[in-house]
Amino acid sequence: MENIQLAASITPSRAWLESLRLRTLPLAFASIINGSALAYGQGHFTLNIALLTLLTTGLLQILSNLANDYGDAIKGSDTAARIGPLRGMQKGVITLKQMRSALVITIIATIFSGIALIVLACETVSDILGFLLLGALAIVAAIAYTVGKKPYGYLGLGDISVLIFFGWLGVIGSLYLQTHSFTLLTLLPATACGLLAATVLNVNNMRDIETDRLNGKYTLAVRLGAINARRYHIVLTVGALVCFALFALLSHRGLGCGLFLLATPLLYKHMRYVMRETSPLAMRPMLEKTVKAALLTNVLFAIGMVLS
């Protein structure tokens, strides 16, 4: 009865938009923007490669979003008691069959986009094989977060996955595709980008900490507990700023490289709020704010790289 009432209040097109979660795309694009800015700083920026990398990344993020809805739905993790918004499947508007079809279509589109990117950007056989492997791993990771007998998102491994794919692979991969080289120093902005993405996941998990625990979804926030999860959030945020600052100092690119510091007051305000408000419900408005703060910090760093 409850699902019928929910379904009556939402159209199929609105349900699909909710499941696609298009608002998450800018944060996914941040790693590509930063990688492209680093490539620009080295004088090797290539627009068509950057755009195709953005498209592939966007498709991977959409695949992850759809798979997340699918996995949580079949496991019954998202219920009416959840503080966060219910998606189309939980509202009974999108069926399991429809979502499986959407997943297949998105996987095919991602593969075509990824292959086109590899053909356009890769110059050696080793690069082609390497990026084919990385692409396959990215698709598997997007699906396995909540789908399967032992999804890693339910084991508290989502944060390290975000660091790897939204940070290291996203930034360094997009840099390499345009320059065909990278230095260990670029691990610093790549790590910063991944840590900021992890703050978004952590806020989401702090919001759902009670319902996730009840449904056997042991995210890192659930494992740490409400207080330690907030301390962990501070470590992520400060760690990102330190990584950006170290890169600015060690790269000797001038004052423009420190433009990201303009976001520091906003990040500080968010950290104070997270430490002060300890209820799961208090994290609901923070999710969108954390996304915007993380995106702003990344964009400021990218602009600084271009200006410097």
Question: TL;DR?
Answer:
By secondary structure, the protein is an all-alpha fold. The chain has one domain (25-307).
What does this structure look like?
It is globular, with a radius of gyration of 19 Å. The chain has 13 helices and no strands. It is mainly α and 308 residues long. It has one domain. Helix content is 72%, strand content 0%.
Fold topology:
Layout: H1 2-8, H2 12-20, H3 25-41, H4 47-75, H5 96-121, H6 125-144, H7 158-179, H8 187-207, H9 209-214, H10 220-224, H11 226-251, H12 264-276, H13 286-307
Helix pairs in contact: 3-4, 3-7, 3-8, 3-13, 4-5, 4-6, 4-7, 5-6, 7-8, 8-11, 8-13, 11-12, 12-13
Could you give a short account of the major beta sheet? none
Helix content: over 70%
Strand content bin:
under 5%
**Chain-averaged pLDDT:** 88
List the total number of helices.
13
Q: Distance between termini?
A: 60 Å
Question: What is the H-and-E element order?
Answer: HHHHHHHHHHHHH
Morphology call: globular
**Could you say how many structural domains there are in total?**
1
Number of strands: 0
